[in-house]
DNA sequence: TCACTTAATTACCGTTAGGTAATATTTTCA
DNA sequence: TGAAAATATTACCTAACGGTAATTAAGTGA
């Protein structure tokens, strides 16, 4: 599939790596720095680094804060929808 | 809106409370106990209790494990989609 | 190439997540 | 209503989250 120039609709998160990679890609696409996010989301730079690198133990509320800062939201659904 | 007997398609998670409430409701609908989940997801019962009660600091990977056990998946998307 | 920006690492450290196991409380239903 | 099942709480404990601040490394653009 050709995803070039195709706006992202949604990404299924199967692992913390998936989330980290997506957050990084999306952040960069928004031309934001890690410092921008950590400032807006009231976290340390360290948290952003760890999140983007897929740390499994990041805390949920902080993740939600970062997603909100990026204009993203989390959805739960049954497996296999598309 | 009448949601009775309407299969859940997706739930937007704006807070850890949202997630906890949804997990509980879904688990009960599946006729599973907390012990069932904690067994299958390799966590303690304590984690399930805390997750369902909306603890903000639950760790992401464990949440993903529980969702997987329930046949659910996490999706990230831009805000405001429906 | 070199200066500047951004990202990553490290040390320090108080707080706490969450496992287990025991106990208590609440819910369920025959 | 009473016993069993399910959920919640507690104590004990180790590992480690994540903030700050300083430092280092990596990336970028003129």
UniProtKB/TrEMBL annotation, chains A, B:
Q: By its UniProt entry, which InterPro entries does this protein fall under? A: Cro/C1-type_HTH (IPR001387), Lambda_DNA-bd_dom_sf (IPR010982), Tscrpt_reg_HipB-like (IPR017507)
Q: Which GO terms describe its molecular function?
A: DNA binding
Domain (HTH cro/C1-type): residue spans on this chain: 23-77
SUPFAM superfamilies reported for this sequence: lambda repressor-like DNA-binding domains (SSF47413)
Question: Could you tell me the superkingdom of the organism this chain comes from?
Answer: Bacteria
Write down the NCBIfam families for this protein, in alphabetical order: couple_hipB
| Name of the protein | Transcriptional regulator, y4mF family
**Which species is the source of this protein?**
Methylophilus rhizosphaerae
Q: What is the lineage of its organism?
A: Bacteria, Pseudomonadati, Pseudomonadota, Betaproteobacteria, Nitrosomonadales
């Amino acid at each position: 599939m050709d995803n070039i120039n195709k706006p992202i609709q949604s990404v299924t998160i199967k692992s913390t790596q998936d989330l980290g990679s997506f957050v990084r890609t999306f952040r960069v696409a928004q031309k934001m720095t890690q410092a921008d996010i950590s400032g807006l989301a009231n976290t340390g730079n360290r948290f952003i680094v760890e999140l983007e690198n897929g740390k499994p133990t990041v805390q949920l509320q902080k993740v939600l804060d970062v997603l909100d800062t990026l204009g993203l939201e989390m959805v739960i659904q049954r497996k296999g929808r598309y």
